[in-house]
Amino acid sequence: MQQLSFPEIFLHILLTDFLRYFLAAGAAYLVFWIIFFKKWRHRVIQQKPLESDKIGFEFRYSMSTVFIFALVGFGIFSLKKAGYARIYDDFGEHSGLWFAVSIVLMILLHDAYFYWTHRLMHHPKIFRHVHVVHHRSTNPSPWAAYSFHPLEAVVEAGVFVLIVLTIPAHTLALFIFLIYMIIRNVLGHLGIEFLPAWFIRNKWLNWHTTTTHHDLHHKHFNGNYGLYFTWWDRCLGTEQAGYRQAFDEVTSRKSESDKDTEPFKISSAPSKHVAPMLLMLSFVSASSAQSAEGIWQTFHEESGLPLSLVKITEKNGSIEGKVIKIFLQPWEGEDPVCLRCPGEKKNAKIVGLTFMWGFKKENGLWANGYILDPGNGTTYSSSVWLEDANTLKVRGYWGIFYRTQTWKRVEKDGK
Ligand SMILES: [Zn+2]
Ligand SMILES: [Zn+2]
């Protein structure tokens, strides 16, 4: 390094930071989402496709983070040159045991630093200016690993400064820590739960966070603030109540090959016409005489908190649903619009948006309709049926997968 000029050193650091991100996120994306996707498809936590424009967004912000990390890296290099950093290059300076201990200390320090700065960034006043960028990924991909607002990137880089000023670490130990960091970070945003079902029950392992752990944080915005370990969230009561059930649910799903042996068989991708037919067989006793008309309460899937009120109207056997109220989080603004909705619905106010349409009543259910998720602008094929007079089941299909929500009746007549 001695012969290199400062710009050359900066470029070296920039390239290393870029490759660290690009190789880790790229490898995870390639292996899980492309080459072996079929094997992992049933483990896609949110059962939704990744959206290419969202990946583009995550990548662009990650590039800004790479640049900021490189600037901080250059600062650390300068600190080291000036004799302030505690990084050492000679293995003889400390014992082999210290080499290992220093790595563990860096991981523990980073985990604590991340938990507290992350919680702070969830303060509503800070959240909407800084951390909101990272939370634009409600269904994160591996590329979201560095998707931070520049200010958040500076906060994240702060831990490296703290480490080099306090922990005497060999350059190689620091490098191992950086590799550990990017791998855990990318896996947290993988979107696919790859761990076995027993992981969460193993007392030696279950204090590690899982992909589901961080995925739920992206989905619900609150709780599960931890990075590497679950202990901060557990001790401080910020672990999401539904985390363990969600992990069990994901890891107990049957793979496509297993599904062939099930009585409720979906062996190939059913079209929006076939799926409701299969569905019909599973609830022969659907209450066909009742009406879905009225006002319904929808809920967050894991937290169970109220999400919105929906008014359903019925005409000539077809139903239509409109959002009439949303229960907003402090950072969601006054009157949100659907930024990603297609066509004429783009930028429409979510309150008042017709997001369910085209259903036809057949054999006790409303089938072959469409449902638009205002959160991501994706339209799914959908079927709806009444479980009882006050319980509505709403199912959205994505290829051979589906998710079913339960809505509760608030008022019979939606005037
Ligand atoms: Zn994240
Ligand atoms: Zn967060």
What does this protein look like?
With 415 residues, the protein is an alpha+beta fold. A hairpin with a 2-residue loop joins strand 5 and strand 6. It has two domains: 246 residues, no CATH class; 150 residues, Beta Barrel (Lipocalin). Helices cover 40% and strands 17% of the residues. The protein is built from twelve helices and nine strands. The radius of gyration is 25 Å and the shape is elongated. Helix 1 packs antiparallel against helix 3. It has an eight-stranded antiparallel barrel with strand order 1-2-3-4-6-7-8-9. It starts with 5 loop residues before the first helix and ends with a strand. Bound molecules: zinc ion (2 copies).
Quick tags:
415 residues; alpha+beta; Lipocalin; 2 domains; 8-stranded antiparallel barrel; 12 helices; elongated; binds zinc ion
Short description:
The protein is an alpha+beta fold and 415 residues long. The chain contains twelve helices and nine strands. An eight-stranded antiparallel beta barrel has the order 1-2-3-4-6-7-8-9.
Topology of this structure?
Elements: H1 6-35, H2 37-40, H3 52-81, H4 96-121, H5 124-127, H6 150-166, H7 171-188, H8 211-220, H9 231-235, H10 243-251, H11 256-259, H12 274-282, E1 294-299, E2 306-315, E3 318-326, E4 354-357, E5 360-362, E6 365-373, E7 378-388, E8 391-398, E9 401-411
Antiparallel strand pairs: 1-2, 1-9, 2-3, 3-4, 4-6, 5-6, 6-7, 7-8, 8-9
Helix pairs in contact: 1-3, 1-7, 3-6, 4-6, 4-7
The chain binds zinc ion (2 copies).
